[in-house]
# Entry
Amino acid sequence: MVKLILKMQSKLCFAFLFAAGTLLAQLPLKQDLKDVVAVVDGRNITRGEVQQILFVAGPEFTAKFQANPQVALFEWFLKDHLGKLGAELKLDQQSPLKEELEALRMNYLADAFINYEMNSYVVPQEAIRKYYESNSARYQRVRVSGVFLKFKPGDVTGTSTADLAAAAAAILSAGQLQRTEEQAREIATDIARRLRAGEDMAKLAQQYSEDPSSNTKGGDIGYVTTASTYPQEIKNATLAMTKGAISDPIRLSTGFYVLRCDEKDAQPLGDASPEIEVELRKVHLNDFMKGLNDKLRPVIKDPSLIIQQPAPAKR
# Structure
């Protein structure tokens, strides 16, 4: 097998045209998808073909590609070549591979149909309106202004992807900042006290806030809703506030926010509709699957039934 792979590797030679240090998955979209980025066995491979491979191959292949594009693409085209040789011999029509492929096809089609059933369902506008009226508390919005204070990130304590991503974001956000977390907390606590005493938010934001998107706008951050992309800590705190309230310092991985609730009301139905449609599509899918469950659940007539495993088929 090793000799076969080495022979195939020799045949499927690659002449890559990547710019130094550049990964196709990270190239700007403005680049032409017709650009030739590799040559495999004398055939030009375009940027668009590689992007399509990355799209269908999944995250594990993408990670391998980002680590070493040549090795990843070699493995892809090797399997593609061997697969075509197998198809020419009609190996896919022989048992047990035939049945295994049919089972895979069945599973993929089933998953595709579940997605189709949910995403193609047209939610009636009247259903959206009724859901909105019955769940109005879920569709509150709060307009907030605030002051953000960064602190120097501490040591990384977790090893998960989320922990490492948060640590990287904190490092990038902090830059050369030397303020410790405790120092930032003390300043944020004092700012909250001063705001409650009646000091002007705009002046404090301009003087202290390190949020470039709001510190020149009087600290105005905008509306926060349950569907906002703000961190959950921000959403939890703001949606629980009453108009005029000042929050205690809210800790994020990169710093502390002190927020003031400037307005609080219900989102307009039009703004809430996309989120409600998603929710009602899920409800529809649950009802659809419950119907299939009631219809297709087997009734076992003999509880003592023992399923005999078939002997492994010879390949």
Q: What stands out?
A: The chain has eleven helices and six strands. Confidence is low (pLDDT under 50) at residues 1-29, 171-175. The longest helix spans residues 269-296. The radius of gyration is 29 Å.
